[in-house]
Amino acid sequence: MGKICALGIVLSLLAPALATKSPDCGGILSPSGLSYFAEVSKQHVETILVQDLTGRSVSDLLLGSPKPTRNQIDSVKVVDLSLLLIPEAGLRLSIDADLGIAVSPSTSKVVRLSILADLHVERNPEGNLELTVSACKPTVEEVQSTEESESESLSSEADKEIDVDKICLEVSKLLVLPNELLASLTAQLPVTASCQLQYLPLAAPVISEQGITVSLQTVFLASGTALPLPVSPAPFSMPEAASASASHLTLALSEHYYTSLFLALAKDGAFNVTASSPLTTAAVAQKISQIGSLFREDLPVRLKATFRSSPRVLLEEGKAALKLFLTVHVGVGSPAFQNVLSVSVDMSAGLLLSVTDVKMMISAAAIEDVELSLAASDVGPVPDALLKELFLSTIREEILAQMNAVLSEGIYLPHVPNFIYTDVNVVIHKDYVLIPCNLKLQPKTGGQIITG
Question: Among 67, 121, 128, 213, which is disulfide-ready with 206 (CB 3.0 to 4.6 Å)?
């Protein structure tokens, strides 16, 4: 995967406010999740320190040492790295690194470089989140020597005051990659070929002993242009149950989030269906006689379904359901379509939810609770029961197949590159869905940041 600093995903939770929006989802990063990021960040931190410190003299890091000494750093080993929550403030980064010093071919020493830094996140002029160091305190002490006389010499150097600016510049370098990851947080993510979504942090996080809580607004776009969707009627806040999870991270998605997803797809035309019925005009004319007078030859009957009203998702304990409100036009001809009658169709479909990597997988189960009624007709009145007899089976099959085809690639959840979700549990509650999960750093990818 290359040089990936796991601090980036933590910092995605530290966002400035966008007060004009209303959150519809969010997440809470637990202390165990923070510890995981610290653990997987050690290699990246060590790589940067090796690049910048190896070959330098210890005197380069100290004040009052204008002349270089022979005590050169020939190895760097990060022995400890931790990230701690500072309630109502930010994060505290602690790094302990052992610097191997080559004094002579036969003499070596080890100096412990300790760095304590407080981290904050700001919004830069480009509108991206950017990590900065608000405070930094480095210390150096000798921990091992092979020669007592040389040890005294090095100890004398170690007693000198550290050049804070030089050391804290190293901390700033450690933040370059996390800031690149932060810049990717608000990327437009594909839902379909022409529909995208975007997660925007709304408010400064709530940092407590339980973790880091953030609220997010989901924006849906068609060909890069934001779709005018209703804002959540009530701002969504993280349920108390989310902070009780032992997982690294718990995502929470509101009922409004799911409704907005399906409304965006409907507006984009993703669920529109044009399909052939197994019936022909001659077969339908046996039930609706005026069809025969309209068409002298036997032609295939075609159905075209569009949304007449916004879809809705209903979340109850342990189950999710999608309500669809369609108009199905019945007619003949392709591509020139001649409409004969139009049918209002209301139906419900159970939704099955799961997570793969960083995507939420949604599939529609069997369609039920279907109501058909005549909306318009060129062939006179048609009883609802007859409409069901002629067209219900095809409508069910085609709508279900179209929805599952559109949803088959999954929907990106809030995430940063190079991490996936594991040990996932999807729990459906009334009005919201909780997704407690652990995080896993992906295998090496040749040093590139994985997007999407």
Answer: 213
